[in-house]
Design brief:
47% of the residues lie in helices and 5% in strands. It is mostly helical and 296 residues long. The chain has a 3-stranded mixed sheet with strand order 1-3-2, sandwiched between helices.
Length: 296
């Protein structure tokens, strides 16, 4: 059933949405027997057997309490859903596109635990909002939303939708919002990372209070590359074709200039991004092959 028949399409100005500004090392041939033997090196760090090389997450994130930020994210997410519901733009549980997204999430979520142990306790949610905006996001704590525009206007396959979802999940897993808030506040009030030796202090308290900025937070190009690669691996481990990461961004590039193209305004497409993904597709191909074998 086409989304337009179920959800009124809103203009891109009617919903506040998260902002991102986009812009490796292989561990040897993949052995199917260890496909699911992931070991986490600590919250936000890369799994020991990760096939993409993104290094450790920013230590700055430790200046902001994760629980506080996740609570703020939940509050904002609920407010956004309430607004969409009031405008009759929130998909019902039996909406086919929402059921499709939740099925994709159900396969990817188990792959997230190795990237951030906190993900095991997150109350993951996936919702769909009727809007022409070409956008999607995952807030801290696993709060996911897609806009119908990104599915319908780009005609995303399941594999491509999984790449979008994996990318957005990666922002939450790598705690980019938490680190970005800490860096912003540390810069604003002139406090260096060494202040953490004295406790959270003003940086932690002030940044935590900025949780209300989550829907307008702007990520760095480094964050975007990080999310691209972690999302690629998450989706491959869940059995989604990694080649779809390339076709997704090719579609994004062709969509430049379309009405409601919010996603590209904050996630610029380009040859460098596509080349980086192509370079890493081979590194996760074995994960995809093993996952597909296990699903048979």
């Amino acid at each position: 059933m086409p989304a337009e028949k179920n959800l009124p399409l809103r203009t891109e100005t009617e919903f506040a949405i998260p902002r991102c500004d986009c812009g490796t090392r292989a561990t040897g041939p993949w052995n199917a027997r260890r496909a699911f033997l992931l070991a986490a090196a600590g919250a936000g760090a890369a799994p020991v057997l990760a096939q993409v090389d993104v290094g450790d997450a920013s230590a700055m994130r430790n200046l902001v309490p994760a629980e506080t930020l996740e609570q703020s994210a939940t509050q904002q997410y609920d407010e956004l859903l309430a607004e969409a519901r009031a405008q009759k733009a929130l998909a019902n549980d039996n909406h086919p596109q929402l059921m499709r997204l939740r099925a994709i999430a159900q396969r990817i979520i188990p792959q997230t635990y190795a990237w951030n142990p906190r993900a095991r306790s997150w109350k993951w949610e996936v919702n769909l909002i009727g809007s022409k905006q070409i956008n999607a996001f995952c807030m801290p704590g696993g709060k996911i939303a897609f806009f119908t525009g990104i599915l319908d206007q780009l005609k995303l396959t399941d594999d491509e939708a999984a790449m979008v979802m994996g990318h957005e999940m990666a922002h939450a897993l790598r705690e980019h919002s938490r680190a970005r808030l800490a860096k912003t506040q540390a810069t604003n009030i002139g406090i260096a990372l060494g202040a953490s030796l004295l406790g959270l202090g003003d940086v932690g308290r002030t940044a935590a209070n900025l949780g209300g900025q989550l829907l307008t937070l702007k990520f760095s190009r480094s964050d975007e590359t990080d999310a691209d690669l972690v999302g690629l691996e998450l989706a491959a481990r869940a059995g989604y074709n990694p080649q779809a990461s390339v076709t997704l961004w090719e579609k994004m590039g062709k969509a430049t200039g379309q009405q409601g193209m919010q996603f590209l305004s904050t996630h610029p497409s380009g040859p460098n991004r596509i080349r980086e993904l192509q370079h890493n597709v081979a590194r996760v191909q074995g994960l995809y092959d093993a996952a597909r074998q296990g699903q048979r």
